[in-house]
Design brief:
Layout lengths: L1 H34 L35 H4 L7 H9 L1 H4 L12 H13 L4
Helix pairs in contact: 1-5, 3-5
């Protein structure tokens, strides 16, 4: 009886994980639009004040053709992943002194949701 109840609990928890991930993705998209969307697009080739962020995971910082970057970011040799994005979004100018990006996201849960969105966005 206990084994059956445990199995049911595990199955229910497993079924909730995709919904939770989907909710975080939606929350991340909303936060991206609110916090990042004025300066960044998710459409390839649509650079604004900052470069587009489609496919940013695994990309070398400062490498989008036609985007405006500071010399500091172009020369940083950062390859964007969840960890480097988390550090950068916490305090851009502490990670890359001289960067033009001034807006940080101090809330860790909001950063995580934005990064989850960036990880999933641009993947077609």
């Amino acid at each position: 009886m206990r084994a059956r109840a445990s199995l049911a609990t595990l199955l229910a928890a497993g079924l909730l994980l995709p919904a939770a991930a989907s909710a975080q993705q939606a929350d991340g998209e909303r936060l991206f639009r609110q916090r990042c969307g004025a300066c960044h697009s998710m459409e390839p080739g649509q650079n604004r004040a900052g470069p587009h962020l489609s496919g940013v995971i695994g990309r070398l910082a400062g490498s989008i053709e036609g985007a405006r970057y500071s010399a500091a970011l172009r020369e940083s040799n950062i390859v964007w992943d969840s960890s480097s994005l988390d550090t950068f979004l916490t305090a851009p100018r502490q990670m890359v002194p001289g960067t033009q990006m001034t807006v940080g996201v101090s809330n860790a849960a909001q950063r995580a949701a934005i990064i989850t969105y960036l990880e999933g966005a641009g993947v077609k």
